[in-house]
Design goal:
alpha+beta, 32% strand, globular, 4 helices, eight-stranded antiparallel sheet, single chain, 145 residues
Length: 145
Amino acid sequence: MKKNIITILTVLALSTLAHARIGETVAQCDARYGELLKNGENGRHYNKSGFVVFVNIDKKGKCGKIHYFKKSDENISTLELKALMRANGTGWVERVGTERLKIWKNNSRVAYLLEGKTLYVYTLAYEAEEDAEAERKKVEELSSF
């Protein structure tokens, strides 16, 4: 039993090395994942260890936002969630969310788990850029009134 637990913990520790991390460059993301599934205007798609990973690159050429979800459409397990969160920062504090949306924040990042299936991790700067862009578009849309 102890041997199985040690094996599981070792696998989990090693698996955290396979996840993209906030702040990595495109080249670092490519090296971490290998084959690129899709390179779109809004980001890069990879397939790694049963997860689809969608990486958004910020204006500085670094990963500013990551989406993780399982190809099988299963929920992300508690152990997988802990590994993904640990790979993207420390000092996470759970915030008030809802039954469908769990929220964590640290000094430079925010993470959202939607319906147990998709984990979104953002830098606070990237989230602010997205919010400002959405506001700009809304103002532009309403300018004709």
